[in-house]
Amino acid sequence: MATYLLKRLIIAAITLVLASMVVFAVMEILPGDPARLMLGFNASADQVEQLRNQMGLNAPLVLRYLHWAGGLLSLDFGRSYTYSVPVIDLVGERVVVSLPLALIALALSTVIAIPVGVFSAGRQGRAGDTVAMGAAQLGVAVPNFWFALMLIYLFAVWLRLVPAGGFPGWGAGIWPAVKSLLLPAVALALPQAAILARVARSALIEVLNEDYIRTARAKGLPYRAVLWRHALRNAMIPVLTILGLQFAFLLAGTIIIENVFYLPGLGRLVFQAITQRDLIVVESVVMLLVAAVIAVNLLVDFSYAVVDPRLRGRQ
Amino acid sequence: MKLWKTILAAAVLTFAAATSAFSARTDLVIGIPLEPPHLDPTAGAAAAIDEVLYANVFEGLTRIGPNGEVIPDLAESWTISDDGKIYTFKLHTGVKFHDGSDFSADDVKFSLDRARADNSVNAQKGLFAQIDKVDVVDPATVKVTLKNPQGSFLYNMGWGDAVIVSPKSADTNKEKPVGTGPFKFQSWAKGSSITLVKSDNYWGAPVALDKVEFRIVPDAAAAVPALLSGDIQAFPFFDPDSVAQVKDDPRFKVVIGSTEGETILSINNKKPPFDKLQVRQAISFALDRKAIIDGASAGLGVPIGSHMSPANKDYVDLTGLYPHNVDKAKELLKEAGLEKGFKATLKLPPPSYARLGGEIIASELRDVGIDLEIIPVEWAQWLDQVFTKKDYDLTIVSHTEPNDIDIYSRKDYYFNYDNPAFDAIIAKLNLTSDEAKRKELLAEAQKILADDAVVGFLYELPKVGVWDAKLQGLWENAPIQANDLTKVKWTD
To answer: Is B130 in contact with B412 (CB distance < 8 Å)?
Structure first.
């Protein structure tokens, strides 16, 4: 277990270094000069050059990479070109929106998907299964921004239960803040729940066909007990894998949802930074997301050991 | 039971009567599409900065009024020397910055000197290029000496980039703007909203609103539900394509005004075959402006024939010069030796006027034998490839700076247009402050650009504003990109 862990950590570190090079290189190749963007149509070439110097954009490429990567090691993420504040402050302001959003969405999708998966697997091929999986198919197919707009019209415009968008900040109180995250979380969660339900169903069906399930049933255990105690636990590994992947997707892939609900989250920050060529923000935030994804994957690896006791003893 | 209902109804009625007896509401949430990168109008070109701060938080010597006129602001009045070189501004007294410090002529000198300094990063440094020196005569009088007389000097001083800042807060305005205006900055929740509140020690006429929140709504599709739910009460710059969803709703007012945005099909004048006049004229004949406005701007927008807003007092209507005429276009191409047509590229920045308009223009030019390859680009790419490196054949863009016909005389500007006769007129214009003379020169300048078919002149970008029907005083037109809230109030 210890060597396994160490190996995973080393791989994670190498992935981070490689990712930092790729991220930096991609932002360099991207055409567009942040200084010109800031100064607009009417500024002269001299003025743009002046600003480039002030921003440190004229230093050699390798130097700038080392400066940036070195900063990352000491947890210094640099300063935003456009906002001229430390990137870490920007991330701090945004992560309090994106992280709760992703967590609520993740919780929602799990709470919806597992029962549906169990329900469907137990009625394989019957009407209930067909309806549930048909709904899941629809959930996968419907684009989440459209779904989000439908939710807005129903719950914000028509019923006026929640705001149509925006985020009042946690300073406005827990409930107003959570309220403004509910619709986006549902919009994010449902497509994920649909995928998860399908995975849970097929994993369960596979397990239900195993010999030990038949044995358990044969020794007289009620179906319900077999399903929840024996089958579900064994079907958890693929479900956890997907869950881990989804968390990464939720955290990084909220750009569209954050735009539709105009939430000040990380996705919006990155999107805005790309269009404004705020290179340092893009680079640093992407690196943070890479690190988060790697961390979640490590966590998933460990959770395998929790669900599957056989993995614990293995070296 | 019945009694309870009656009591309840009576209570509700009394409460309703009591609330309506109070004066009208004094808070406002305005939706803006783009977040300002920072809050210092003197250090960035982003229109979003002025849309929040201009006239509300920051004030200049002069300012631009709702119809593009120059009106006195911090300068109460001024005199101009006979040779047109010396402007003496008499300043308002008793003016205070939001940090409590006094405003005086020293701040004017500081602001103007800062904007034109060598290391200045003012995005409109050109506005100050003619200033020779700025002298403080007394705390309420400042004298600006120009190198040459400049007809547009008072107008230039009304730009957001020329607002007066205090030396104490100049370096921190990006995060915490301190001005002299009727509203002071309260808070900025990054990515979400910027809040201004009424300033208690304002020198001028007090404003009706106590609190204004500018909320950032980047997605046009999100703007409609935000209005319908009442979360946001005004979108001064609304997406034309979404107007249909709210225009029949009596709760809202849809106001179509003009902007200073000349939307044009820019042509690289030095790149063959566009260096031939006949080719450029052929393009102008091939364009069907009506179809372009219908398709790219929901039918809103006024056709133009040269580089001047139809709302401008010096506008000359030249739209009749190149009516939509496919045969004429083909004939001109034949004269240019291109009867078989040719291939070219059309680079399109992100706004919908460009992306939608580009497809229509490509099909119109195909009708006369010009085969366009459409290349969508981001703004950053556009500025880099098209604007800076001039690596393009055709592009569509709206030039939103006011009174900017002089861009055609700029050396190395991305049109690659070079006409000494035009340059001479602009040079003369810069030295002329007589209104009648200026009008004549501007008419001549517009005529030359149209004759040379420098670019394909399409239409003036409309300003589409949608707001609560009870709201009054928001600008109908956008002579500059700003949301002046000084006259805004709620009515019942």
So the answer is: no
Cα diameter, chain A: 85
Tokens (6 digits) for B92: 């308002």
Residue B148 CB coordination number (10 Å): 13
Encode pLDDT of B97-129 as tens digits: 999 999 999 999 999 999 999 888 888 888 999
State the average pLDDT over residues B397-426.
93
CB contact under 8 A, A33 and B381: no
Answer yes or no: are the C-beta atoms of B43 and B120 closer than 8 Å: no
Query: How many alpha carbons fall within 13 Å on the CB side of residue A290?
Result: 19
- Binary contact (B191, A268; C-beta < 8 A): yes
In DSSP notation, B55-102 reads TTTB--SEEE-TTS-EEESSEEEEEE-TTS-EEEEEEPSS-B-TTSPB
To test the contact with chain B by mutation, choose from A262, A279, A285 the residue with the greatest count of B C-beta atoms within 10 A, namely: A262
Least confident of A21-30, B87-96, B363-372, B455-464: A21-30
Residue B178 phi/psi, 5-degree rounding, is -125, 115
- From the list A204, A187, A106, the residue with the least C-alpha distance to A139 is A187
User: How open is the CA angle B371-B373-B377, to the nearest 5 degrees?
Assistant: 150
Task: Kindly report, residue by residue over B122-166, the tens digit of the pLDDT.
Answer: 888 889 999 999 999 999 999 999 998 888 899 999 999 999 999
Euclidean distance between CA atoms A291 and A210, whole angstroms: 38
Please report the domains of chain A, with CATH numbers, ordered by start residue: 2-73 (no CATH), 87-311 (1.10.3720.10)
Q: How far is B472 from chain A (nearest CA, A)?
A: 24
Which of these, A249, A296, A90, A16, lies nearest to B189 by C-alpha position? A90
Token readout for B272 is 């063959």
